[in-house]
Amino acid sequence: MKTPENEDQQSKVIVEEFYKKREKIQPRMVHGLFANLRIIAVAVLLGIYYILPWLRWGDRQAVLLDLPARKFHFFGITFWPQDFFFLAVLLIIAALALFFFTTLAGRLWCGFACPQTVWTEVFMWIEHLIEGDRNKRMKLDKAPMDARKLRIRGTKHLVWVVFSLWTGITFVGYFSPINELFTGLANFSLGPWEWFWVLFYSFATYGNAGWMREQVCTYMCPYARFQSAMFDKDTLIISYDEARGEPRGARKRNVDPKEVGLGSCVDCTMCVQVCPTGIDIRDGLQYQCIGCAACIDVCDDVMEKMGYEKGLIRYTTEHALNGGTTRLLRPRIIIYALVLLTLIGALGVAVATRVPLELSIIRDRNALYREVGYDSVENIYTMKIMNMDEQPHRYTVSVHGIDDAEVHGLDESEVAPGEVREMNVRIRAKIDNLEETSTELQVHIQAVDNPDIQQDQNARFLGPRL
Questions:
Q1: How many domains does the chain have?
Q2: Which domain CATH number covers 416?
Q3: Which of 55, 371, 423, 450 places its Cα 20 to 30 Å from the Cα of 195?
Q4: Where in the sequence is the domain holding 29, given as residue range(s)?
Q5: How many CA atoms lie within 13 Å of 401's alpha carbon, on the beta-carbon side?
Q6: % of the chain surpassing 90 pLDDT
Q7: Contact 208/119 with Cβ under 8 angstroms?
Q8: In this predicted structure, what is the pLDDT of residue 281?
Q9: In a domain, 9, yes or no
Q10: Which helix (DSSP H) or strand (DSSP E) does residue 160 occupy?
């Protein structure tokens, strides 16, 4: 029988189920092969991120995405908005690489290279250095707020904030010359947008890596939701060997599990304690698992101490767990690899053979043609020459498709780097050399000081009826 009290109790249960309070995760530090690999990955990736803006190339920053000038410098190459095609191909390569590595070995990106993982690792190292190991941190969480706790927590957050500000400043340094950026910071003379992005990215780093952590991976990142669609039974994933580990139970060291009717798992829960998302890998593959392999390292350490064979938790496949044979080279992997290599090769060739020159030519539609003398006609065109090189150039223009055609009105002065030179040019041809009323021309432009910088553009030349 329903009563108002029962209904209130049911509503409370429902609220607790749908709005469960977050339980703070304090992962234990772990050492081992995969932990060392993660340290190397973090060091390399953060090293690239923080050092790259300070590198110089000649008299400018080596890597600079100069949005106001619409120039994107990458060491010796300058890209322009007209080169958006390269960015599109690069994004396609990145997506295919994600598919390839996910199909091959699960969430390698999440566990070792994702910015959320990388910065969270640094924040946890700082936390461990200041507050101590897992037990000390959990004890500090439960302690009342006194002077000691305020001092420790304040120091930790101060270091987090400084590191976050450094991260935000470095991020803006990719878009604004970093030397000028630091000068502006010292003089408090930055523009409003620079201040906004420095503070915004600093706050995002501090919030995501310091406070939200596993919640970003669990609730905000869409990759966790669809990554299983790229798995198959031969995908290498972190798995607990249930057949070997069950039933679980505590026992003394070097005790044969079969003698006590137990599996290899001693139910120490160390795999749960080191997990940055707080899951129990023994419950099977879960979308919260980011593939950091911390549970592998700690379980191997426990197995070694117990005198058991390592690999109770390991990188393996569903086929292998069920007694089958793993096939790493399979059609999907081969196709992904071939497509990736093809795109990377094509992008490399396209960038290497890229011509830093853009030409557009549009015929004047106000007049079909104009007669010059008694034997020639000319068409008027609007020609735009864009110098996409870092050096000024002078260009020559020639016409192919009509014998003895001439170009008049060309501005032969130097075109500065990044300049778009617009000019009205006249192309003149003899009537006797016209075979049709409309003739296709090929306009050829070439730098005087560098014959490799050249470009062709097609145009139509109109003449009288023959």
A1: 2
A2: 2.60.40.10
A3: 55
A4: 20-354
A5: 19
A6: 70
A7: yes
A8: 95
A9: no
A10: helix 147-173
Residue 214: name the closest of 286, 135, 302, 130 by CA. 286
Does 361 lie in the same domain as 346? Answer: no
Give the C-alpha separation, 317 to 234, whole Å: 5
Using the 8-state DSSP alphabet, how is residue 225 labeled? H
Task: Write down the number of H helices and E strands in the chain.
Answer: 16, 15
Domain assignment present for 11: no
Closest CA to 235 of 103, 395, 74: 103
Query: Interhelix angle for 147-173 vs 178-187, to 10°?
Result: 130
User: In this structure, is residue 129 part of a structural domain?
Assistant: yes
Coil, helix or strand at residue 335? helix
Same domain, 401 and 342: no
- At residue 69 the predicted structure's pLDDT band, cuts being 50, 70 and 90, is confident
Positive or negative: CA dihedral 135, 138, 144, 147: positive
Asked if the model's pLDDT at residue 202 lies above 70, the reply is yes
Same domain? 281 vs 199 = yes
| Amino acid in position 116 | Q
For residue 455, give the nearest of 381, 393, 369 by alpha carbon. 393
Tell me the residue length of the chain: 466
Which helix (H) or strand (E) segment is 63 a member of? strand 63-66
Please identify, among 354, 386, 421, the residue that sits at the C-terminal boundary of a domain.
354
Q: Is residue 378 part of a domain?
A: yes
* pLDDT digits 0-9 by tens, 9-39: 555 554 545 555 778 899 999 999 999 999 9
Mention every residue, 6+ apart, whose C-beta is less than 8 A from residue 438: 460, 461, 462, 463
> For all residues of the chain together, what is the average pLDDT?
90
Three-state DSSP class for residue 171: helix
Determine the pLDDT at residue 16: 47
Domain limit, last residue, from 354, 376, 399 = 354
Domain identity same for 347 and 262? yes
β 357-363/313-316 pair status = unpaired
HSE-CB at 118 with a 13 A cutoff on CA atoms is 18
Task: Give the integer Cα–Cα distance in Å for 289 and 106.
Answer: 10
Contact (CB, 8 A) for 339 and 82: no
Q: Are residues 385 and 297 in the same domain?
A: no
Q: What is the distance between the alpha carbons of residues 388 and 69, in angstroms, rounded to a whole number? A: 12
Same domain, 349 and 366: no
pLDDT per position as a tens digit, 175-193: 999 999 999 998 888 889 9
Kindly state the tokens that stand for 274: 């080191």
One-letter amino acid for residue 264 of the chain: S
Whole-number pLDDT of residue 147: 95
Same domain, 327 and 438: no
